[in-house]
Structures are given as structure tokens and as C-alpha cells.
Amino acid sequence: xxxxxxxxxxxxxxxxxxxxxxxxxxxxxxxxxxxxxxxxxxxxxxxxxxxxxxxxxxxxxxxxxxxxxxxxxxxxxxxxxxxxxxxxxxxxxxxxxxxxxxxxxxxxxxxxxxxxxxxxxxxxxxxxxxxxxxxxxxxxxxxxxxxxxxxxxxxxxxxxxxxxxxxxxxxxxxxxxxxxxxxxxxxxxxxxxxxxxxxxxxxxxxxxxxxxxxxxxxxxxxxxxxxxxxxxxxxxxxxxxxxxxxxxxxxxxxxxxxxxxxxxxxxxxxxxxxxxxxxxxxxxxxxxxxxxxxxxxxxxxxxxxxxxxxxxxxxxxxxxxxxxxxxxxxxxxxxxxx
Length: 338
Prior knowledge:
This protein is α+β, with helices and mostly antiparallel strands. Helix content is 35%, strand content 22%. The chain is built from 9 helices and 12 strands. The chain has helices spanning 7-23, 66-77, 86-90, 108-117, 144-167, 212-219, 275-290, 301-314, 325-335, and strands at residues 35-39, 47-52, 59-65, 95-101, 127-133, 177-183, 190-196, 227-234, 251-257, 263-268, 295-298, 317-320. Strands 5-4-3-2-1-6-7 form a 7-stranded mixed beta sheet. Strands 10-9-8-11-12 form a 5-stranded mixed beta sheet, with helices on both faces. Strand 9 (251-257) and strand 10 form a beta hairpin. The longest helix is centred in the middle third of the chain and has 24 residues, at 144-167. The chain is globular, with a radius of gyration of 23 Å.
């Protein structure tokens, strides 16, 4: 069950963020100039901060928790290279973010919190609000646990940035380094300086089938002369359901016939399902029913990695293309009814 933060907990978060606004970290840092703050000895627990606003259009701070969160940041920064839509990358973010935006960007709940706290904002890029980004969900207001974590993250950032600015630390961000600030487990001591990022490219996992009997059956599947298009796409619309503590944004696993655009399968995944695995299962099911296609077209490396082994075993040409024409037409037509 979702637990909401108290007004006192929201007040502490707003006070911390307001102090950071006065520091104007975006005057010194670009969004790719990462600050990494670690508590204790485990690097995997690092919180990675991206500072927004150097260009003057949108001020904010995104806190990516752990390596999984940082990996989603790299997906966003590399989405064009991987031919992922900005929508796909945004809906796969895993972070807690504060923005200084415009009044019309806020939900009624966010405006209510500001009113109850007694803040009075005016003008462009002055309205402070917070968003939680989590794959499978639509961006939403922070719950109690997220408010408490974000408060701690921003308090850590306040101290780290103050040292960065006052100590005049020089960091070669362009060479894949970050400003590292490491606390002892009890937070009584700390040290800081330049440190390499844990990784600089998006990590995506290849789907590996280990069932030897299944692999044998796939290798012996009859061959067809048709082509398929395969993709995974977030619905891109909030879905309210009592079993979720915030609006869901499920991923769709879609398989079409390339030449006709006929839909072979279109599955809406539960939030605990891997959409790429579901897509691979749809491809396998189709192969056993109709035979192995001569070609499967995909548009990005994420889907390509999920289907690579299947295509290799079945001797299917797996081709990455810029655009999936049949899939795009179906998607545009379907979105009219949302």
C-alpha cells in the first residue's frame, strides 16, 4: 500500500532543494558532468547526480540510485545512437528528480503540497516539484520512502557541491570521469576527488536460452519466405489499477508481418514481466506454428539482443533498420484510441 509523506517530511525536502537552488550548481556543471556520492564501501550503492539547466531552459537535479539507475541515465544519453525513441528512453528512466518548472507542469497534488507548505512561486522556471521515474510506471509524485531518500540525496549533494566549488576541484568529465564524494558508513568522515565512472556505455543483457531440447527443436524448424518486424514499446499512457500504488505504464511486446503489417501478437506485459522475454516467447511460438521467417527486422539494439540467439539457431537474418514501417503505422493508428 502506498504511504504518503507527512507535511513535515515534505517541508524538509523543499527546504533542502531551495538551499541548493541558491547554490546554482548548473552555473558550473553540465548535465553530463556527473557527481557520484557513495556511503560506505560498496560502489554499487553510489547515487549519481545529473545537474540540469546549464542551457537555461529547465533547471533540475536527477538522482540515479545505484548502477541500475545510472544505466538508465546512459540509455537516455545514448538513445539516438541506439535508435531508441526519446519516449522509450524516458519511460525506462529510474531516478528521483526535482524540477524548477512552470505552474502548468505540476499536478493538482503537487500544487496542493506547495500551498500547504506556504511557498509562493511566480514566473517561469520557479515552481519546485518532484517526480519519481520507474520503468513500468508513469512519472508520478514521490511517496513517503522516496521523499525521505530524496531529502538525504539532496543533503548529500549540498555538501558535495559546496566542496567541489570551494575546493576548486578539477575533473576531466569529458574523459569519462566524475566528481566522487565518499562517506564512511557512519558519515563521520569523507573524502572527495576525481574518479572514473563505473561504465560509460549502456549495458543491455542478451537473452540466453539454456534449454538444449528447445534449441534443437528451433534449429529443426521449417523455413519460410516471410519477414517479421519485432519491437517493444511503452504504452505511453497512465493506466490506473487498484493493484498498483501509482499509475502504470506497461510495455507492449509486438510482432507483425513486415510486408502486410498484419499483427501477429500484441501483448501488454504485467509490471513484473520482462517485455523482451515476452517478445522472444512470441517469436518462438510463431516459429513452431508457421516456421522460421527468413528475416526479422528490429529497430534497436535492446530488441536485437533479445532475439539474437533465436535467429542464430534458426538461421534467420536479424536486421536492424532505422524504422519499422508496418509497426509504426499500426502504432500510430492504435494511439488514436487511447
